[in-house]
């Protein structure tokens, strides 16, 4: 299949592109489009046949349900069986924006969208191209992230083409995504709403509006001593967000990280197995590294942003993970973040990409010191 590419057009809408893209969607095709979070792979959310095409293009497991994208709150009535006062309050506060709500579904929502569940996930994206596309197609668009299943979500049109060129009908380029991490998913069918996936709408922000908010205990498996549980959003049990390179998460101060990385880079055995090494660091840690060992070669070093500005790091994370693969990196050392605010979303994605718990550097450095003392 030939994938049609509609380039980015200034600030206004490319009406011809919109007309073509919505026409393809109405005829049951699949088209990738930008949102404020990540690129989505859209299809007519009320057509079982069209929705099956999404699963096929992505290689997505059939038991992983999709999010329906709406052009406005009034379209909630199309797909949700029960819209409570609490849901309306959330919609007024956070839509359009990166908050997906899990609600009781109407019968007309195909089971292909919900993977057989009796709930449906919906959101209104905060992006003019997405809203125009949904509006012009005249139906909710089912859209997962437009990546090959398991790989980091796409935050540029180039990422989408890298993964899906030739497998989808078209892609609307809207430039890089503003947020770069997938939406927060909140299950509002429970008495106390439950966060199923953390995102840019933080737990703290939700609590301000709702009071008590719970978090799915299966979420932060690798961050807790009792290991991974099974998350309630079906999709989150699969391997996710993972580049080809092995990701090793390091948790500690900038100085501890600099110390640890320096030791590893001196270790010939380690390098033989892991080179080329990539480092995804904050500006603070990169500086600590340079200060202690100015002219040493640390491999492929990328600065994601400042420790004080986590949203910026979220914006760049997936692009940098993908770049590591393009550079042929075998092992990525990625800096860990505090699990507050957007940090919760960052750490959720990073622990999944890594597939294991972060290395606690304080403990690790102590252990190595002891070993050294013994050996001498
Ligand atoms: O920001 C986003 O949400 C992006 C953009 C394109 O909107 N979309 C996205 O979709 O991340 P996807 O398919 O990659 O992730 C959807 C997640 C999956 O983990 C899925 O299991 C969960 O939402 N989900 C969908 N319907 C659900 C439901 N009824 N109950 C619980 N979880 C659900
Ligand atoms: Mg996804």
Largest beta sheet, briefly? 11 strands, mixed
- Overall, the morphology is globular
In round numbers, the mean pLDDT is 93
Count of alpha and pi helical runs: 14
Instruction: Give the class from helix and strand content and strand pairing.
Output: alpha/beta
Percent of sequence in beta strands = 15-25%
Strand order of the largest sheet: 1-8-2-3-7-4-6-5-9-10-11
Radius of gyration: 22 Å
Q: Would you list the SSEs in sequence order as H and E? A: EHEEHEHHEHEHEHEEEHEEHHEHEHEHEH
Structural write-up:
There is one protein chain. This protein is 37% helix and 17% strand. The chain has two domains: 4-220, DHBP synthase (Alpha-Beta Complex), CATH 3.90.870.10; 246-375, Rossmann fold. The mean pLDDT is 93. α1 crosses α6 and α9 (254-265) packs across α11 (283-292). With 376 residues, it is of the alpha/beta class. The strands form two sheets. Strands 1-8-2-3-7-4-6-5-9-10-11 form an eleven-stranded mixed sheet, with helices on both faces. A five-stranded parallel sheet has the order 14-13-15-12-16, with helices on both faces. It is globular. The longest helix has 17 residues, at 310-326.
């Amino acid at each position: 299949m030939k994938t049609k590419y509609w380039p980015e057009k200034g600030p206004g809408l490319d009406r011809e592109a919109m007309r073509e893209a919505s026409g393809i969607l109405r005829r049951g095709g699949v088209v990738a489009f930008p949102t404020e979070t990540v690129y989505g792979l859209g299809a007519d959310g009320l057509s079982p046949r069209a929705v099956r095409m999404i699963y096929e293009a992505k290689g997505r497991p059939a038991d992983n349900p999709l999010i329906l994208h709406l052009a406005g709150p009034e379209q909630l009535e199309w797909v949700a069986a029960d819209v409570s006062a609490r849901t309306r309050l959330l919609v007024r506060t956070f839509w359009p924006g990166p908050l997906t709500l899990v609600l009781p579904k109407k019968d007309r929502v195909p089971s292909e969208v919900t993977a057989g569940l009796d709930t449906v996930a919906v959101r209104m994206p905060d992006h003019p191209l997405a809203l125009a596309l949904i509006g012009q197609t005249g139906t909710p668009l089912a859209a997962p992230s437009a990546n090959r299943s398991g790989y980091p979500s796409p935050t540029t049109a180039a990422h989408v083409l890298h993964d899906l060129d030739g497998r989808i009908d078209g892609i609307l380029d809207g430039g890089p995504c503003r947020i770069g991490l997938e939406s927060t998913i909140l299950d509002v069918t429970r008495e106390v709403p439950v966060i199923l996936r953390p995102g840019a709408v933080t737990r703290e922000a939700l609590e301000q509006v709702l009071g008590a908010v719970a978090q799915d205990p299966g979420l932060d498996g690798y961050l807790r001593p009792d290991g991974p549980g099974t998350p309630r959003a079906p999709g989150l049990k699969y391997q996710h967000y993972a580049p080809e390179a092995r990701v090793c998460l390091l948790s500690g101060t900038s100085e501890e990280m600099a110390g640890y990385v320096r030791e590893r880079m001196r270790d010939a055995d380690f390098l033989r197995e892991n080179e080329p090494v990539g480092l995804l660091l904050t500006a603070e840690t990169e500086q600590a590294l340079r200060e202690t060992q100015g002219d040493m070669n640390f491999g492929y070093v990328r600065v994601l942003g400042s420790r004080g500005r986590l949203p910026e790091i979220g914006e760049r994370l997936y692009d940098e993970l993908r770049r590591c693969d393009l550079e042929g990196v075998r092992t990525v050392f990625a800096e860990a973040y505090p699990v507050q605010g957007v940090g919760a979303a960052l750490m959720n994605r990073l622990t999944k990409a890594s597939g294991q718990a972060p290395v606690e550097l304080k403990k690790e450095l102590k252990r190595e010191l002891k070993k050294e003392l013994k050996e001498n």
